[in-house]
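new request in #modeling-help
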Amino acid sequence: GSDKRMVRFLEPADVKGMAFLDAGAEGMYVYLSAFKKTRKLAGHVKNKPFAGTDFSYEDMDPEPYGARFSVSKMTENKESFILELVPKPGAPSQYSKVIMAVRKADDLFSSLELYNGSGVKWKVLTRSDFRPVGRYVVPFAAVMEDLVAKHTTTTKVEVIRCDTGLADDVFSPSKLER
Amino acid sequence: MAGDASQQALFSIGSFSASIGFHGFVGVSLHAALNDPTLYDFRNANVVGLGVKARPAEHVLAVAEVELHNVNMDDNASLEMLGSRDLAAPVRLRVGEAYLDIDDFLPMTSAVALSLRAGNQYVAWGEADGINPTNPFDPYNLENPIDYDAKLPTLALKAALAFGADVVRLEGVLAPRFAPSVFPLSLLLGPAGADSPLVPSLDTSELEALLGEPVELRLALPEPEDVSVLSVPFDWKNAGVGARIRWSLFGFDWSISYARARETVPVAWLARGQALLSPPGSAGCPASGPLCVDLGLSEVGLYHPRVHIIGANLRGGIGDLGLWAEAALIFPEGMATSVDVQLGGFPSSTTGVEVIDDQPFVKWVLGTEYTFPGGVFINAQWVHGFITEVSGDALHDYLFPAIGFDAFSEKLHLELDLGGELNLNGPNPVWGGLVHAFLTYRPFDATALTVGALLALGESGTTFRLFEQLDQVYLRARVDF
């Protein structure tokens, strides 16, 4: 689903055991294996990179962009709708503007241009290698480029299983440390 | 890349397969003390940690960790050491976490889950960073006091009952065997004399009544070998027990707890010594001052008082600002303390002082943190009552602000930790301060090199006065695998 997201680190070894949960409206939690504690995270972490990557904690938010941004402008080309998004009132974001390319074929976005508070283009996320998995279409590769830091993070999906019947309580803070 | 691994973990939960994984680290610590070289001899060490984490069934987890410490310097040079590598560079084997965890082992309904963890583990109560007055179960590991937030696992049985997805969580803890905190006796019995938390506070009024005039007490501490500690027998009366309820409300995580245990840091209950009188104007006694009494303590007895602790915690945020609070209402066991003083030329005098009275007191920690766009983070904690302060009239106030910065995708971490101490318990307020700066460089995954420096300064009557012995520069290296 798109309500909650859990990330568990298996490597590198110094962060092995660390886990992160975005429980939507219930907040974000991190399990710090070095301190053996699960901590509730406050909103300021959105200003931090996620585990040293070019993704931010805000980028890891499972909530759809439509819940946090509204469309201020829309154009289209042959393959995609191009949406210009601005944060909704009361939905603070580290981004002042997002340009989203949405594939006409399956309504999945293929790229994001993320602008900082000063209106400068800051990061670009490009998703590719879209493949069908059961009744879903999933991007198997994503590249986040930080144009300011001149740094890139690449993610690749190696194994994916969908509709495995996960119980809701898997996405709870106490499960992070297991 | 972390993203690959996290994806694997996320999507492998649904179809379980038994697994076993090994992990470990190699660490090196080199400390150079600036004031007292002997204090750091035994903390320079090579450490090898090894661990195994096995998941034989979906709801079963077994963890075991050991550490091998090879001390590479020792201050007790002897002839025997020259002929024995075992004596010159001893190796110590320590057990870390070693527990069995069973999750959802009594599935009552889908909305309630019971889990159990048994073995050597961290109970990990308390929302504050490092200093947790509501947690009497996890002893502090102050072997190297700059790691003031280091704790030791304890043998315990912990059960947790979760309602919904952790909407409400009940926990019970039983720690059958008392485990004390580890701390360097030489630090707490350092040259700072009366500032040591291991010496009973001495009431000079009885001496003044005996001598018929005002006195100034000058204290000389005993040698570490003259300090003894009362053992805590392994029986049910000394077992630690506790219960806690946690819930989330208004964007905060809340918890209330009760624990009956023993303080893991000892206090003094017995002191014996010899007093020498010096009239004003002699032997360093100011001519215009009162009679000087030089009290040399020849014996100090320590014990770990039994306490009942009612705790409360919260953690969350207001706006983007992170906030937490931890408060402990502590009901200590009263124990009469005997201070025997032999005065030259006077009949033997015994003064009874109630060091740990049974008056309840409150220790608390307030904290806040924020990360600015660009990655600079600040963190501050106000601590009322340090780890070593275990009676209501001994609590000092501390402010620990920190500022840090990560650069180059967290390859470089620079942090400045400050500390300020205020003791308002005496006739005049006294102050102390501490600066700890360090730089960590991670050239490769799982590899960290840290250089740092610590400087402390305190007036008489402060904990940071004791920490002046800790002034140091250090280098640490660690590789995880």
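bot summary: The CA atoms of residues 31 and 177 of chain A lie 6 Å apart.
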